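Sample A.
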Amino acid sequence: MCFAMKKERQHIQSLMRALDILEAVRDSSEPMRSTDIAAVAGLGMATAHNIIRTLFARKYLAQDKHNRYLLGVECMQLQTGALNCFSRVRDAVGPVVRKLAEETNDTTFFGCEANMSLVCLSLCQGGGNLVVRPEQHWLKLLHCTGAGKVILAEKGIDWFAELAELNPPEKIAANTITTVGEMRAEIEKIKRNGYALCMGECSEDVSALGIPVYDKHGEFVGALAQSIPSLFIEAGRIDINERVKILRTYAEQISDQL
C-alpha cells in the first residue's frame, strides 16, 4: 500500500493532463474544438487552453481551417521513432508480406510485441495493396488476433495473466477469449499445432491465421498472419493446413534475412 501511494505521488499532474489532451484528440474521429477537448479530458477551460496552446506551439497539435485541433507532426515523428527499433525486421518482412498478399489475395500482417502491445510492422491488403503507414489499431488486441495469439503462446500463460491484470482484455465478439483459463487451453493448442486460428474473435465474420517467425539463431521475432473470411474456411474453400504450409514458406524467407 505504501509503495503504491509513493508511486502515485511521482505522477506530474500537468504532464498527466497534457497526455489526457493528446489522447482525447487521438481518439476523436474528427478534429476537436478546445471546449470539446476540455470536456473530454475533464479539465477546466483555462487549464486546458494553456496546455493546448503549449502543445500547439511545440507542434504536438495542429489546427485545421476551422481552428479545430488534431494531432501534429511531432506526434507522427514519435511514432516513427518508436518503430525505428524495428527497422531491420520491418525492411525484411515488407516485401514478403506483399508477395504473400498478392499470391493468396488475403490481407497479410506482420506483428511483434512491444510494451505488452501488438505492433504492426507491415500490412498489405488482399491483392498486394501495401498500407504504407498503418494506424496501430491492434495495440490492445493480443488476445483475439492471429498474430497476437502466436505472441501469447511464445510469452506463456503467466505473461498473459500479468497483461490481463494490467489491461483486462475486451470482449469484442462472441468468440473472444478473455479469461486466463480459456487462454491457457488456447496456448496449449497453439503450441501443439504450431499455428493460431481465431474464428470470429476480433470480428464476427473474419477469422485470422498466424504462425511464429524466428531469426537464423532460432530467436522469436514476431508473427506472420492473415485475415480470412470465416465463410471461406467453414465452406472448405480454404484449407487451413494448406494455408499454414504457404505461410511457413514465406516465414522461412523472412528468417533467411534476419
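Sample B, a different protein:
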Amino acid sequence: MTESALYPNRLHVVIPCRNCEAYIGDCLDSLQRQTFADWTALVADDASDDGTADAVRAYMQKDARISLREGVQREWLMGNTLAALRALDPAPSDVVAILDGDDWLLPECLDRIMRAHREGYDLVYTDEEIDGGGHSIAAPLIASAPVRKQSWRFSQLRTFKGYLFSQLPDETFRDRDGNYFRAAGDLALYLPMAELAGPEKVRYIPEKLYHYRVHEQCNFKVMRDEQLRNNWDIRNRPPLERQTEYFDVTEEIRGLDKSRLPFIGPEARDRHPRPLTVNIRHIIPGEEADAWRPYHGLWIEDGVFLSGKQE
C-alpha cells in the first residue's frame, strides 16, 4: 500500500462527562478491555459535583494511559469537549475518538476504527446498540447529497484525524447568541468535518461497537427543544468547501503539457488506491504563471487535486 502522510500512529480518546460517578467505571473498564491497547484517554470532567473525578483518579493510579481534565466552572458539552480537544492539540495524522462518559465500547471497537483509519479514511464512525431499543440511526454517508441535508448518519463511535478539527473556526461551535452549543454539539462538530474530508474519506463501520446508555439526564430528554433548535440552525449554515491543505500523497511534476491534463489524474489514481488523496503539485517557471492559473486549484479526478507552485 502507498505510504500516506496521514497514516496514524496515535489514538486519543476524549471522554466528556458531567456527574458520571455511576457510569465512568463502565466506560473506562470498556477501554481497558479493548483488543487495540495503544491508546491514551483524557477524561474531561465538566465541573461535576459528584465523585466523578475521584473515580477517574482511582483508575489513573493503575493505568498511565488515563488522564483527567477538571473544569473549574460549567462549560456544557460543547465547551467542555472543545477545551479537552484544544488541550490535547492532536497532530494532523492522530486519530481522536470521542466517547461519552456514560457510555461504553465493545472490545473490538478501537481495533476496527484504527484499521479503517490506516486504510486511508479520515472520519470513521460505527453503529451502536441503544439501551432498550433494537433500532439504530447509523447509516453510510450519501455521496450524492449535501452533508447538512441528509438525515443524521453519524452514530457512535465517531472518530477523526486531527487535521480536520484544526481547520474548524471557533464560530463553528457557537449558537446564534455566540455561546457554545449546549445541545446538538455533535452536529456542529461532525457535519463540517465531513464536508472538509469529502465523501470518499468518510467510512461507516456497520457493526454495533458502541453502547449508548439511556437515562433521565440524556440531552434528548432534558434539553430536547434546544437540541432541535440548534439542529435546525446548524443544518442551515453554509457548507464548508472540501479542504485542500492535507493530502495522503503529494507528487511534483514539471514540464507538463496541457494536452496531458486529461491523463495525469487517472494515472495518479492508478498509482494510489482509494481512499487516498493525491496532490499533484505542478512546478512552473514564473513567466508561465498567468497561462496556468485557470488550471490550478482544481480537482482533476476523484480524490486527485492539481495545485501550482512557481519555481
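Observation for Sample B: The longest strand covers residues 202-212.
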